[in-house]
Design a protein that fits this description.
The protein is of the alpha/beta class and 305 residues long. 42% of the residues lie in helices and 18% in strands. It has helices spanning 13-25, 44-47, 66-76, 88-112, 120-129, 138-159, 174-189, 193-197, 201-211, 223-232, and strands at residues 4-8, 28-33, 55-58, 61-64, 217-220, 240-241, 254-259, 267-274, 278-283, 291-296, 300-304. The model has no long low-confidence stretch (mean pLDDT 96).
Length: 305
């Protein structure tokens, strides 16, 4: 199996999702630290411009979005599972809640409460990236953002109300990862996090169990080395194009793939895979050779180039 390379930066809450999955599975992985702001000259050849974090690389295959990354890790390393008791569908459905309803107010608080300490280039970069955030109103919106974040904390507390150790029962799952990463973000970025979490005793005990999982076995790698690994590898064959797909596309068509929420930068390539779950496109950047970039279907718009 190709070694697993995560392109991320340590403060990224979404990268914490995948670092935890590495911990659940006890996997070895290589860590490539990328800049917090654009440009990212050693990552962009691999992704074609996709700018969300993290990105998983396995040889010449590049996987975008945590929802697809966890499914790929499960495919490659099925045990220990991140989806116990058939929980894949529920766990991935909960991502729509945690990635927006829970994350968005937490991100607003993280930016608004720390704006004086955040480098100006980071603020300017995020203004163009987080289209759900009104940077001119972050200060006045702080009370509202606290109400939204507390309401989501209360939901997690209720999920644990019967004394279960994890959200779906006795075993940790990706549903726990979904709910944990905004709490992890709050601990690192909201100065009053201890007071904010104090009323939620079951959540805090669960939080300690989640933190104890760890991040698997990490080893550092440079972006230059990751590009060399891609150049020396060949991507996996595609899964084909579903003839019943409503878009009416065919293998080999030039298409763009674009997130439909924020970070709406299209990635262009030759269509290789189109299923109900995944779209993958072939690209040939000179820095990396032939690579295949994979995205989930949910949350991404696919159009003819």
């Amino acid at each position: 199996m190709a070694e697993l390379i995560l392109h991320h930066h340590d403060p990224s809450p979404f990268a914490e999702k995948i670092r935890l999955v590495f911990g659940i599975k006890g996997l070895p992985w290589r860590s490539v630290q990328i800049p917090m702001v654009m440009p990212r000259p050693e990552l962009m050849p691999l992704t074609g411009g996709y700018r969300k974090v993290p990105v998983l690389q396995a040889g010449a295959d590049v996987y975008c979005d945590t929802r697809l990354i966890v499914r790929e890790l499960e495919r490659r390393c099925p045990a220990p599972t991140a989806f116990p008791a058939g929980s894949e569908g529920l766990s991935l459905a909960l991502a729509a809640w945690s990635d927006r309803s829970f994350f968005d107010p937490g991100a607003g608080l993280s930016m608004g409460l720390n704006v004086a300490m955040i480098p100006r280039e980071v603020i300017e970069d995020r203004k163009g990236f987080f289209n759900f955030m009104d940077f001119d109103r972050l200060g006045s919106d702080t009370p509202h953002l606290f109400t939204q974040f507390r309401a989501n904390l209360a939901l997690v507390e209720r999920m644990l109300a019967d004394g279960r150790p994890y959200l779906l029962g006795e075993a940790v799952s990706f549903a726990d990862v979904d709910a944990y990463f905004p709490v992890w973000m709050a601990r690192g970025n909201i100065g009053s996090a201890a007071d904010l979490l104090e009323p939620f005793a079951r959540l805090r005990a669960w939080e300690r169990r989640m933190a104890a999982i760890g991040h698997g076995r990490r080893e550092e790698l440079s972006g230059h080395e990751a590009l060399a690994i891609a150049r020396a590898a060949s991507p996996l064959p595609g899964a084909g194009v579903d003839p019943a797909d409503p878009l009416g596309l065919a293998a080999g068509d030039r298409v763009t793939v674009t997130p439909d929420d924020y970070g709406r930068i299209p990635v262009e390539g030759e269509l290789l895979t189109l299923t109900v779950d995944e779209v993958a496109i072939r690209r040939e950047p000179p820095e990396a050779g032939e690579v295949v970039v994979h995205f989930p279907r949910l949350g991404y718009r696919i159009e003819r180039a």
